[in-house]
């Protein structure tokens, strides 16, 4: 699409691009859910469409609602739709469509409607800071037309259910990021010290710290600072061992509730028969063995924050009760008849594909929307190698104090092995490996690590994975240097790389890089 203007977009070109990018994403993601791939493609496409619109109509600065409406209506019509502006009210834009750009085939793939939602929401969030997109009517679901509501103000959107989009965090220089890291560390350390003031520690433990030298984890820090002061529920997604509870504690520490309790519960570890009692409490005599009143986790976290790890493990019945607590702020203990009011902020976490669980009916869709007001994704350790040396140093410092052994570093050969390993258990596995190594190491450094023996093509870092990781690092480094040299001009970078600007935008989006950071 190099050289293609906004007004020259065609439905055939768009669909061809969609299919090509979908195939490319499938190869990279390995049979990831279609919805996730569509979201990723739509966000990348939205950036391209907005840039094309701005260039053709010489638009600078943030779009106003009128210009935004012109963009989204014109965009959809140029690629084969029949959209029109139904109304533009305070905080909400309503658009209707008589013909789907995907044709009648959309009825066989209604998930393609997410393309519209993600494109509209992504553009709006970048220009207004927030957007919630509701697909009120859809041709894909048999309605005679499509009706899309784009809410631009969270106060106006209220409890309307829909896909929510937040503006990407502004680019930060190193000083700003260091200052953010220091603020979060200071708050977490202060809360940690208050919680442990009554304990007699021998100095072997230290306050928690989030290591964020990689761009991906720096984005997590920015998300923490943005969402912490708000009452919004947060859903944290990440593999086992990446530190989801640590991020939840950071959100609590940076919030106005920091002086109140932070209560963490692993929903998957509670026996199914007592989940209701554990979460919501029970009255005396509610069942055999209930000899006294029991305050559940929600009551204990009243005024503070409740962290629900592995929230996807909750049964449908418990999901229904949880939804009521979130919506109404009230609960009843098991065996009780008195309604109790609770003011608890919910932060939940999962390591599974919860969207798939919703699609399969294993997780309530309305509860998912309540929990997923803001989603924070923590990348696995293998995708953020910049963090690993700093994590190693931090962990070794703790272990050295715990065991009284002055082992504070690893040899270059060991560091190379650590960087090459896939870390399926993430930071938790790294801590376990380093603890074993410290026990048998001769000070002052570790010269060998007991990495598990695994089939290099399955459990460890396969040649294909290692090659991809190396290429990604080189590509990221080249893009950063090229953007600096070109002062943020994507067209110039595309010319040097012999790619289309669209392809470069896709790569920048995948790496979380903003060309605007390099301009000026």
TrEMBL record:
CDD domains: AAA. Residues 210-439 form the Sigma-54 factor interaction domain. It holds the Pfam family AAA_lid_14. The keyword Flavoprotein does not apply. Gene3D superfamilies: 1.10.8.60, Homeodomain-like, P-loop containing nucleotide triphosphate hydrolases. It comes from the Bacteria. Keywords: ATP-binding, DNA-binding, Nucleotide-binding, Transcription, Transcription regulation. Signal peptide: none annotated. PROSITE patterns: SIGMA54_INTERACT_1 (PS00675), SIGMA54_INTERACT_2 (PS00676), SIGMA54_INTERACT_3 (PS00688), SIGMA54_INTERACT_4 (PS50045). This is Sigma 54-interacting transcriptional regulator.
């Amino acid at each position: 699409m190099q050289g293609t203007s906004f007004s020259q977009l065609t439905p055939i070109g768009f669909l061809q691009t969609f299919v090509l990018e979908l195939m490319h994403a499938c190869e990279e993601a390995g049979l990831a859910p279609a919805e996730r791939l569509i979201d990723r493609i739509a966000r990348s496409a939205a950036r391209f469409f907005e840039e094309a619109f701005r260039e053709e109509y010489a638009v600078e600065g943030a779009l106003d609602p009128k210009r935004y409406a012109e963009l989204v209506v014109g965009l959809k019509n140029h690629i084969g739709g029949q959209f029109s502006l139904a109304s533009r009210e305070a905080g909400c834009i309503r658009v209707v469509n008589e013909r789907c750009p995907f044709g009648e085939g959309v009825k066989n793939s209604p998930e393609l409607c997410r393309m519209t939602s993600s494109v509209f929401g992504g553009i709006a969030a970048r220009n207004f800071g927030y957007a919630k997109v509701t697909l009120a009517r859809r041709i894909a679901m048999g309605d005679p037309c499509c009706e899309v509501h784009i809410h631009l103000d969270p106060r106006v959107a209220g409890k309307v259910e829909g896909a929510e989009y937040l503006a990407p965090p502004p680019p930060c220089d190193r000083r700003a990021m260091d200052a953010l890291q220091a603020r979060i560390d200071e708050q977490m350390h202060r809360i940690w010290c208050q919680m442990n003031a009554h304990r007699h520690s021998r100095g072997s433990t230290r306050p928690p710290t989030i290591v964020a030298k990689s761009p991906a984890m720096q984005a997590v820090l920015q998300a923490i600072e943005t969402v912490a002061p708000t009452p919004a529920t947060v859903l944290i997604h990440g593999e086992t061992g990446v530190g989801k509870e640590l991020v939840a504690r950071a959100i609590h520490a940076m919030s106005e509730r920091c002086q109140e309790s932070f209560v963490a519960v692993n929903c998957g570890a509670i026996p199914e028969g007592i989940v209701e009692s554990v979460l919501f409490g029970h009255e005396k005599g509610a069942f055999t063995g209930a000899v006294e009143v029991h305050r559940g986790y929600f009551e204990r976290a009243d005024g503070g924050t409740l962290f629900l790890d592995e929230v996807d493990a909750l049964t449908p019945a418990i999901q229904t009760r949880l939804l009521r607590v979130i919506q109404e702020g009230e609960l009843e203990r098991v065996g009780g008849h008195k309604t109790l009011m609770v003011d608890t902020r919910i932060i939940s976490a999962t390591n599974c594909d919860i969207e798939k669980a919703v699609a399969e009916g294993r997780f309530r869709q309305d509860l998912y929307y309540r929990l997923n007001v803001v989603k924070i994704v923590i990348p696995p350790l293998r995708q953020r190698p910049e963090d690993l040396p700093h994590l190693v140093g931090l962990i070794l410092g703790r272990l050295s104090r715990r065991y009284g052994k002055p082992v504070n570093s690893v040899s270059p050969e060991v560091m190379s092995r650590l960087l090459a390993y896939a870390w399926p258990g993430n930071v938790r596995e790294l801590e376990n490996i380093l603890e074993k190594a410290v026990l048998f190491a001769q000070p002052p450094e570790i010269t060998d690590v007991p990495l598990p023996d695994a089939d290099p093509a399955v459990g460890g870092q396969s040649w294909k994975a290692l090659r991809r990781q190396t290429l990604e690092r080189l590509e990221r480094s080249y893009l950063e240097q090229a953007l600096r040299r070109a002062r943020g001009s994507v067209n110039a970078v595309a010319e040097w790389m012999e790619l289309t600007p669209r392809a470069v935008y896709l790569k920048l989006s995948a790496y979380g890089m903003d060309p605007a950071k390099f301009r000026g």
